[in-house]
């Protein structure tokens, strides 16, 4: 559905991304992007979002080439982002409901009369209630603020979500619930995720396909199970051995289950 070919992004003399080919299939699907700090993961995400201009290469969405300069509004809606720090995207002086309403109005996703109902639906979708709409961001927990960020992304009915370290700022028990939420939303809205993460257990849980970046290039990719458990490149093996606790797939769901059990 989304295809990048030969994607290259330069910042002055720095080549942040170099000749990357990447495909994000129609959802529900998950593509993982891993690699050491500074390898170019966020830059790929920003290029796909149209926030930075590639210096060469192409991006095709639904069979159409994306123009370099003027990214169409329909594309801006189709590809949404959820970042590590939900506070960056939220206005501290606006109530949550008003911030969701703003997205609905800006993108003409609802008539004036439909807005309140749509806000309730979106909050329910991320397991919040209408009561949360009346609060300001500082009156929510970090996990709840992340849910609001996800609701705002869902407000424009996207097909693809770029998730850049979406749970790294959260406590581990909160992380597990947000991952449950990502799994449910993906199923219910047929979303495709490009998940950028240093946490290989998160990648293992959400992604069918995984790509490994090193110095701006993809050095290994394939089914997540193989890339993480039987990496062929020395670099991936080193990334993998940096997290000795990474469980096998069977154990992963078991431990998530145990964690939910412990949470009651
Ligand atoms: N706006 C910018 N201007 C100049 N250089 C940039 C800019 N954004 C990123 N870079 C450089 O591009 C390279 C890739 O950065 P990027 O943020 O994509 O890495 P990353 O893989 O997301 O790292 P991390 O895991 O730490 O988030 C780095 O060398 C970085 O310094
Ligand atoms: Mg990054």
Automatic annotation (TrEMBL):
Origin: domain of life: Bacteria
Keyword entries, A-Z: ATP-binding, Nucleotide-binding, Transport
Keyword Aminoacyl-tRNA synthetase applies: no
Stated name of the protein: ABC transporter ATP-binding protein
Region (Disordered): 244-264
Record organism: Lipingzhangella rawalii
Lipid biosynthesis keyword on record: no
Signal peptide: none
InterPro entries assigned to the protein according to its UniProt record, in alphabetical order: AAA+_ATPase, ABC_transp_ATP-bind, ABC_transporter-like_ATP-bd, ABC_transporter-like_CS, P-loop_NTPase
Family, as annotated: Belongs to the ABC transporter superfamily.
PROSITE patterns cross-referenced by the UniProt entry: ABC_TRANSPORTER_1, ABC_TRANSPORTER_2
PANTHER family named in the record: D,D-DIPEPTIDE TRANSPORT ATP-BINDING PROTEIN DDPF-RELATED (PTHR43776:SF7), TRANSPORT ATP-BINDING PROTEIN (PTHR43776)
MF GO annotations: ATP binding
The ABC transporter domain, residue ranges: 2-240
